[in-house]
Specification:
Shape: globular
Strand order of the largest sheet: 7-8-9-10-11-12-13-14
Helix content: 25-40%
CATH class of one domain: Alpha Beta
Radius of gyration: 24 Å
CATH architecture of one domain: Alpha-Beta Barrel
CATH topology of one domain: TIM Barrel
Number of strands: 17
Largest sheet: 8 strands, mixed
Length: about 425
């Protein structure tokens, strides 16, 4: 047998082995399942096959050859989703070479966040071990910031970890434009969008005839899907005045698929968001009031106000490089809101199902449902409670090795350090 044929047979055998391994059926039994889009199921069965949920419920028939994992006394939740972070784009704040979330200049439309994502970041594991299994990674520099990506937090490289890229274009609405219709920064944004529309029209005309194609332009090409209506737009606005001005601008530009990103002042434009059917990303609940005269709980009540108005929203922690290492704390922001009018069910949705739907991956993630990715975690209670402990996590049906978490290893090491003689 020649060497080429030997290699072909060996490759075929490996492919067959990989397929059979991927198709293994695993039944997680005995736990209370929290689908998020339905009522909890006590003593339920979560059947996983080939990285996806095959069935979920109390009366699921477990195939005789399925491997069983007993989770009696535990709780199973869909993996949490951070709706806006630079996790994977930052590592050590004092080392500029490890920071790749921002570019110089005001127009960075051609930036694609996923290409800068560090699959080996040491910040990923500590977040995964608290149930944060998916992140919407976004660039933050300039006015037109570029496109974001939805990333699963386990894999070999950014291609392997990308679930949806690009997820949308990000534009920072200038705060000064709220009181200045002649604002230069807003003029720059408008000018770039107009140029992108003209460039797209010229490119389309060139493809339909023998006319010359417009000169290559990475920035305008990146904006073409946005101005053509084929890409979601995330508009970042700070403060009530800027948010109202941004909503006016969105309407003027005739953008339809838009998510408004901002702080607790989102509650003051809740009715406008609801009337427009627009989603929102709330960038923090455990924050101080923005104005001296506001009550102490001004931020804490924002989620309840949005929910009461009928706005679908996701809760984040602001997503800066400073908090990226603790992105795992977003459920605690949601948990705080439950003490100020937000239901536990909606709080849980704000860090699971609603982010998935807002980001365009609702058919893949966000709840425990047949057909979705088997991305979930196991805990001893509600993830909204800071005292809850997470015992295991699975991403696309693959168990995550918690030993990868260096912080956990250090905790275990020093918890077992030698004690002085006579110490209790």
């Amino acid at each position: 047998m020649n060497s080429f044929l030997t290699r072909v047979i060996a490759c075929a055998a490996l492919v067959a082995l990989a397929f059979s391994a991927g198709a293994e059926q695993v039944a997680f039994t005995g736990a209370t399942l929290h689908p998020v889009d339905g009522e909890p199921v006590e003593n339920g069965v979560l059947l996983v096959e080939d990285g996806r949920i095959a069935a979920v419920g109390r009366d699921v028939e477990v195939p005789p050859d399925a491997r069983r994992v007993d989770l009696s006394g535990r709780h199973v939740y869909p993996g949490m989703i951070h709706a806006g972070t630079v996790l994977g784009l930052t590592e050590i704040g004092s080392v500029p070479g490890t920071e790749d979330y921002s570019e110089t200049g005001q127009v960075n439309a051609a930036i694609r966040a996923e290409t800068a994502f560090n699959a080996d970041s040491m910040l990923l594991a500590p977040n995964v071990t608290n149930g944060l299994l998916t992140a919407h990674v976004m660039p933050v520099g300039g006015l037109i910031r570029g496109t974001s990506a939805v990333m699963r937090l386990d894999g070999w490289n950014f291609e392997d970890m990308s679930l949806l890229a690009p997820a949308g274009m990000h534009i920072a609405f200038p705060a000064a434009a709220a009181d200045d219709s002649d604002n230069e920064e807003l003029k720059l944004i408008d000018s770039m969008l107009d140029e992108a529309r003209a460039w797209a029209s010229a490119a389309e005309a060139a493809s339909d005839s023998e006319s010359a194609r417009p000169a290559a332009n990475d920035q305008l090409a990146a904006l073409e899907p946005l101005v053509s209506g084929d890409m979601r737009l995330f508009v970042h606005a700070s403060g009530e005045s800027a948010m109202n001005a941004a909503l006016d601008w969105i309407e003027k530009q005739e953008f339809e698929d838009v998510v408004l990103v901002g702080g607790p002042d989102l509650q003051h434009v809740a009715e406008r968001l609801a009337d427009a059917g627009m989603d929102a990303i709330l960038t923090g609940v455990q924050v101080m009031p923005e104005r001296r005269w506001e009550p102490y709980d001004a931020a804490y009540v924002a989620p309840a106000v949005l929910a009461e108005a009928g706005v679908r929203f996701a809760i984040t922690d602001g997503g800066s490089a400073f908090v990226a290492g603790n992105a795992r704390n977003i459920p605690f922001h949601a948990g705080m809101a439950t003490g100020f009018g937000l239901s536990h069910a909606d709080a849980l949705k704000s860090v699971t199902l609603w982010p998935a739907e807002i980001l365009g991956v609702g058919d893949e993630l966000g709840s425990l449902a047949a057909g979705k990715r088997a991305t979930f975690f196991v805990a001893d209670g509600s993830p909204l409670d800071e005292m809850t402990e997470v015992f295991g996590a699975w991403i696309d049906g693959r168990e995550y090795d918690f030993v990868r978490d260096r912080q956990r290893r250090l905790y275990q090491r020093y918890s077992n350090r030698p004690q002085p003689a006579g110490a209790n």
